[in-house]
Amino acid sequence: MKIVSAFALAASLAVSTSAFALTPSDLYGSPANGAAAARQITIDSHTRYVNVKHGDTVTFTNGTDTVTWYFDGISSEIPLAKIFPAAAPNIEIYIEPDTQA
């Protein structure tokens, strides 16, 4: 009986903790409407990194491809390829924390 109870407890803990898993939006932010962007950044062969602030909405372009992103996630650094796969690889986005909160 104790084995069954221990198994039931372990199973219930596993289910309850998985309900709190972070989503990509929690980590990185989310796509946004281009009209909401306060900045536009052109990605080219010379781009090595991008600095943004938490809460910024930014449009990234690299010629013909465009993506607009709202940075409200908890990460302070993310690869640009996570949100803009058409961009060049190995470009990092550094996200400055919101100091007004």
**CATH topology name:** Immunoglobulin-like
Number of domains in the coordinates?
1
SS strand fraction: 25-35%
| Proportion of helical residues | 25-40%
Strand order of the largest sheet: 1-5-4-2
Count of strand segments: 7
Number of helices: 3
Output the CATH homologous superfamily.
Heavy-metal resistance protein CzcE
Named at the architecture level, the CATH assignment is Sandwich
Give average pLDDT, whole number.
84
- Secondary structural class: alpha/beta
Largest sheet: 4 strands, mixed
Distance between the termini: 51 Å
CATH class category? Mainly Beta
Low-confidence stretches: none
Outline type: globular
Structural commentary:
With 101 residues, the protein is of the alpha/beta class. It is 26% helix and 29% strand. The chain has helices at 2-18, 24-28, 80-83, and strands at residues 30-31, 39-42, 49-53, 57-61, 66-70, 77-79, 92-96. A four-stranded mixed β-sheet has the order 1-5-4-2. Strands 3-7-6 form a three-stranded mixed β-sheet.
In a few lines, what is going on in this structure?
The protein is an alpha/beta fold and 101 residues long. Helix content is 26%, strand content 29%. The mean pLDDT is 84.
